[in-house]
Each structure stands twice: as C-alpha cells, then as structure tokens.
Amino acid sequence: MTPTRQALVLIEKDLLFKLVLAFLAYSLVPLGEIFFFLFLASLIGNYLVLVLAAVAGVAGAFAGIAQARRIAARLKSVSGSPRATVEMAGLLVAGLLLVTPGFLTDLVGFLLLVPAVRLRAGRRAAALLRDRAPTLYARLGLSTY
Prior knowledge:
Number of strands: 0
Strand content: under 5%
Order of helices and strands: HHHHHHH
Shape: flat
Helix content: over 70%
Number of helices: 7
Structural class: mainly alpha
C-alpha cells in the first residue's frame, strides 16, 4: 500500500469531510469578495471602488488596532469569567476580519464590534461548542455563560 493510501486509511471519513468543507469555505470567501468588487465596480466605477476599498482597509486596520489594545487591557484586568472570554474572542475575530481586505469581511467585522451582535454570536458559538465539543466547552468553563 502506498504511503498516501495508508494516511487516508488513518484519517476518519468524518474528519476528511470536515476538512474539505473548511477548504471550500476558505476558498469561497475570496471569490465572494472578488464578485462583490466587480459588482460594485459595475455600479459606481472602478476608481471609486478602489478608493472605498482603501478607506475600508485603513479604517479596518485602525479599528483592529484599537480592538487589540482593548483586548490587551481587558486581559490584564478581567478575572477570566466565561462572558468576558467570549466577548474578548468576539473582539479578536472582529479585529481579524477588519484587517482582512474586502468589503464583506469588513462588514462582518464591524457588525461584531456591536455588543448585542457580539453577544448573540458568542451565545451561538457557545451552543455549537456545547453540542459538538463538550470537552472543550467544559474546559473553557462556558457552562455558566
């Protein structure tokens, strides 16, 4: 048996399916951004889209830096409650999305800066962890969240 075949036998089919789905999702986001750029360019013009992309990128970078400072300050002061952990994770994801180039990722990143949206997304993520990874859910102490 070839080494590749041996490696595939060791990998569970469920894990392989999840990896393929993650790869597809990872490759669909840039395609969505490209199509959105082209759509906007057809509506408002190429140069204005480039200006908007540059402004969104700079604003996202500044917002991401501000959120990183806020997370660092809260990590020093917060005692590690589950709610604070989930909120800081949401801020970290928002900062990463804001630094990532593209209008759609910036939109999601700016939405995660809104506390109500971040709280709802955090509760959803905690529920997914509870259902799909109960050991990690318990280890993070999210049962009180």
